[in-house]
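In practice, a research group might receive sequence data for several interacting partners and want a quick structural hypothesis before committing to experiments. The following worked case mirrors that situation: the sequences arrive first, and a predicted assembly follows.
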Amino acid sequence: QKEVEQDPGPLSVPEGAIVSLNCTYSNSAFQYFMWYRQYSRKGPELLMYTYSSGNKEDGRFTAQVDKSSKYISLFIRDSQPSDSATYLCAMSATGNTPLVFGKGTRLSVIA
Amino acid sequence: GAVVSQHPSWVICKSGTSVKIECRSLDFQATTMFWYRQFPKQSLMLMATSNEGSKATYEQGVEKDKFLINHASLTLSTLTVTSAHPEDSSFYICSASSVSSRRTYEQYFGPGTRLTVT
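A structural hypothesis for the assembly, expressed as tokens:
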């Protein structure tokens, strides 16, 4: 079993839809959880950063961490065509250590 | 926000030559920098972890004599691909770790360098 599992998609939704992206993990030592957005041929851009369990909201984005289930989610409300990208979940046990990435989910938001 | 730059953004070189890629944190001092490579439609694979003033720590399977990493300062790390071969063609991305105002570490990525070896 890989440390971090993420459905690669592709996921296609109409503009305005709510998008739900998820990752599961096996290492209970992970405490730092991140979501990155990566456009084609660009570096990943940090979207959300969560420490331990709980929810975090930033504009149209909400990140949830459920450590008991080893499950994290990213919700995008009112999705826009500009949200079309690959979304990568990433996590680490301590803050200053290499991130373990999911495979990334390719999202297309259709106008 | 924290900005990380990479140079060059795209490089084509001939087989057998060496290529140097620079990674700079522009508006913060990075305690640690990481180097990743990414093949098309795949996720990022960690190559090495680099702390300023010390030797890089390479992941299993990454040849340290082929991928030379120098972390000269808190704002600059370089990756040199020596004697490049076509199979080294990939997207190389660096990230820099910074302590946020919330006293948590956040990693910011550079825009990546696309290397093509002919």
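Before designing any experiment, note the following. The first strand of chain A starts at residue 4 and ends at 5. The mean pLDDT of chain A is 92.
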